[in-house]
Amino acid sequence: MLIIDRLKNKINAIVMRRSMANGPEPASPPVPPEDIHIEDKITMLGWYYKEQGRYAQAEAIFKKAIEANPKNSRTYFILGDYYYDRQRYTEAAKVYEQVLTITPGEVEASARLGKCYQIIGRREEARMVLKKALEVNPGSHRACTMLAGWYTDAGRYKEAEAMYKKAIEIQPNDPLMYTDLELCYLRQGKYDEAEFTLKKAIEVNPRKDRLYSALAYVYEKQGKRKLAEGFFERASRLRAETYNPVTRTNYRKLADTVLSSGIRLVCVQYPVRRIGPLEKMLKGIGGIIFVDNESVFKNALKEGRYEDYFIDCFGGDSGHCTPAGNKLLAENIANVILKELQ
């Protein structure tokens, strides 16, 4: 299913839950196609309940899917992800362990199990799981970066650097490999090495905006403000030039779906990035509250460390937020909404 369809389903589920407060029981779930396995049909029903917020029923159905075919690792994955999303990490870990019993060393299951172990304090077991994944899949750049991430978090930077460099050898065209290594260097204050890594990455991927953003941040940390602004500007221009028309169409469809349901829409730009491109994509659609997270995060990064606010660097200039980053993000969103409502 396309991402746009999944998002529309989530929005429709929210609308459905609103109407259920005073309305009748919602319609029966859609009938699944006949040409899929029984466990997949059962899983579809589980997703139906999950999207409605009927979590106990969804969990029971996901377990039934496993009973229908205990050798299908995909059904375990779905239950594990359900537990993970509900922050039930110990239960999620047990399910991901079952996936690895069926498919030893499977990379994504190892990544998720390793993450669960780290969250619940079983850090050394997390390392062993990630190391096993690399042994089983020596040509997997994903396995390399997972183990490198563990070493980085543990402060074992030499081992982390070696793993990131191996990942780059395997997948030299993936900009994320370079930004991960750059972030490892930044944690050590190795700005020259970070700059060299990103310049090399730009030679290989001259049209990847995240690389210019990442290099801008390196210059920002060195106090080279003019260089930083220049590279932030180049990154912004590249994003504007390379936006997929499908992305714009899907964003506008989502906006129409939300607004036509009577829900006020808030559109939040990524941390550090400029709000202009997002406003341009949704130009002409009224009733949208836009949240600009550029200045609030740039100011925070000037005073603090990158890793204080982000756990990775998938966007080049930002990544998934730490608790401190989420707090800053939430406060800024709340302030914008409150200002709109005054």
From TrEMBL:
Superkingdom, natural source: Bacteria
PROSITE patterns per the UniProt record, alphabetical: TPR, TPR_REGION
Signal peptide: none
Keywords linked to the UniProt accession: TPR repeat
TPR repeats: 39-72, 73-106, 107-140, 141-174, 175-208
Keyword Cytoplasm among UniProt keywords: no
SMART domains (alphabetical): TPR
InterPro entries the UniProt entry points to: TPR-like_helical_dom_sf, TPR_rpt
Protein name: Uncharacterized protein
Phylogenetic classification of the source organism: Bacteria, Pseudomonadati, Candidatus Omnitrophota, Candidatus Ghiorseimicrobium
